Amino acid sequence: MASQDSLWYKDAVIYQAHVRAFYDSSGDGNGDFRGLAQKLDYLQELGINTVWLMPFFPSPLRDDGYDISDYRSIHPNYGTLDDFKVFLDAAHKRGIRVIIEMVLNHTSDQHPWFQESRSSCTNQRRDWYVWSDTDTRYKGTRIIFLDTELSNWAWDPVSKQYYWHRFFSHQPDLNWDNPQVRDEMWDVMKFWLEMGVDAFRLDAVPYLVEREGTNCENLPETHEMIKELRARLDREFPGRMLLAEANQWPADLRAYRNT
After folding, report:
1. Beta 131-132 vs 50-53: how paired, if at all?
2. What is residue 258's predicted lDDT score, i.e. its pLDDT?
3. What distances in angstroms separate CA 116 from CA 77, 110, 112, 113, 179, one per listed residue?
4. Long-range own/partner contacts, residues 180-186 (CB < 8 A, 24 or more apart)
5. Do 203 and 64 touch, CB atoms closer than 8 A?
6. Per-residue DSSP letters for 179-246?
7. What is the pLDDT of residues 88-107, one digit of tens each?
């Protein structure tokens, strides 16, 4: 289905689907990819030509799947990678493109990367997350979930330091200043691109980078990170699309149009 038309999204009719809530093919109470594949003709009859899938990766499901514990697999409730490939092929045969979520900013605290990072200050993945001896850094940063979180820092009793999280405390932020993190996340995206997905909806992109003395949102360095991903995508997978979740004030949104 991969197309060289980089502007296909401009007239796309997109249907957002939550796999586990859509159609249960097995009777276990969870929607799954086999069920979604069975309903593609129905979706096509609605007049859509693109399906946008909410997170379907392995996850503790403490944040509806946005707390990812494995970026390269399928939550067992929804099926297998083979089931996903069958769905993707069936969608493409009908001329339906597929957008999937890519949560760049944070992982679940159950992700093996974080478990390694917290295990020791000398672990090779220690710098994959944002750690601090104190909880006083980045004071100008708002707390997004004021109803549940008292701080953007959480104490880790294992490593005896604080880790940074813009969302829930069980979702530690990745350190996008680390080139290894940027390369690994691109490799994750390549995994799905090579399988044939047509686009990513990039979750929480305004928060990728932290800098002292700022509100840690929409920073120039954040835009550079996104431009780097865009350049890699255009170079290796022309015709694919990135859709950024940039839930910011209108004045802050303009810069994302040029990213």
Report:
1. unpaired
2. 65
3. 26, 10, 6, 5, 18
4. 180/127, 180/128, 181/128, 182/225, 182/228, 185/104, 186/229, 186/232
5. no
6. HHHHHHHHHHHHHHHHHT--EEEEETGGGS---TTS-SSS-HHHHHHHHHHHHHHHHHSTT-EEEE--
7. 999 999 999 999 999 999 99
Query: Is-contact 195 85, C-beta < 8 A?
Result: yes
Helical packing angle, 179-195 and 220-236, nearest 10°: 40
Alpha carbon of 113 to those of 23, 120, 149, 182, 203: distances in Å?
32, 12, 23, 14, 19
Residue from 108, 106, 90 nearest 98 by CA: 90
Catalytic residues, which ones? 203, 245
Average pLDDT of 54-59? 98
d(CA 136, CA 146): 17
Q: Is 1 exposed, middle or buried (0-12, 13-18, 19+ CB in 10 A)?
A: middle
Q: Tell how strand 131-132 and strand 161-164 pair up.
A: antiparallel
